[in-house]
Every structure is written in structure tokens, then in C-alpha cells.
Write a structure and sequence with these properties.
The protein is α+β, with helices and mostly antiparallel strands. Helix content is 34%, strand content 15%.
Length: 163
Amino acid sequence: MATNEAELLALLREHDDPERLERPLHCDRVATGLAFQGLVRRLEADFGTRCESERDTQDSSEYGRVHVPADATICGTRIVVCVSKFGSLAEVCADNPGAYFGTEDARQDGALDPADLATVKRAELGYVSIPEELLESDYEGPSALEPFAVRPTWWTRYFGTVW
């Protein structure tokens, strides 16, 4: 499993297919849905609350999101887990993607407690968590993303709207 920035960037590049912007060629919708449902159930069990979720996002390379409610977190800030349709990639963020520069920024601002972050990481069940800071770096792949974003990022590629 990728553990450092260089390995994570290599993983992002490995999954990048300029012919398939919304989902990979061999995307198994049933397996993706079952894995996502497992993530939702685990987060609900671990946080002891119902978590809202959105799934099968249309016209996007993001499969769905799980929202851990603010009142279930130590700092009182909702946690959002975004899941890509590519390679079981996931992003964990406080409040919403882009609300902070990343989980470290949210932690320093008092919006995300390390214990809550650890609970989410344990629940990820096979997803590869890509730090928000890395996803917000400039996209350096072969896909033509300029029509979808002024400054394409890796987040644009794996979680953004592609139509």
C-alpha cells in the first residue's frame, strides 16, 4: 500500500486513463457499491450515529460521499469521506473538500481531532486515503481536464465533475 507522497503520486498516475474520465474501463458498480456501503456502516458503528451518504454521483469521477455529523465528532465539525470511482481512492476532510488546506490545517485550526481522524482511517476498509494537500496539487497527467477547471488538480481528476 502506498504510504508516502511519491508512492501516492505514482498510484494517481497509474489509475489515470485519458480515455476514461468518469470511471475506469473495468469498473464493477456492484462491488464499488458494496464497498461503499461497508464504509458507511463501519463509520456509523464507530461513531455511533447515522451518517448521511450520497452515492453513484453522475457526471463525476467521484462515486460518493459519507458525512459524519458534527455532533458525533470531538471538535464539533462534520467529517466528509469522498470516494472515487478509480482505484478505491478516498479523501478525508473536515467540513467539506476545500474548507481547509488539508487535515493537518483542520487539526491545527481545532476543527479535526486526531482521534476522530484515526477512527475514520480504521473504517476505510481497503480504500487508499489520499491527503487533501496532495489532491490539491497541480494535475500532471495525460487527461485533458482544462474544460472542467481553470487550474486542474488531482482532486479535479479523481473527484471532480467531468462533463
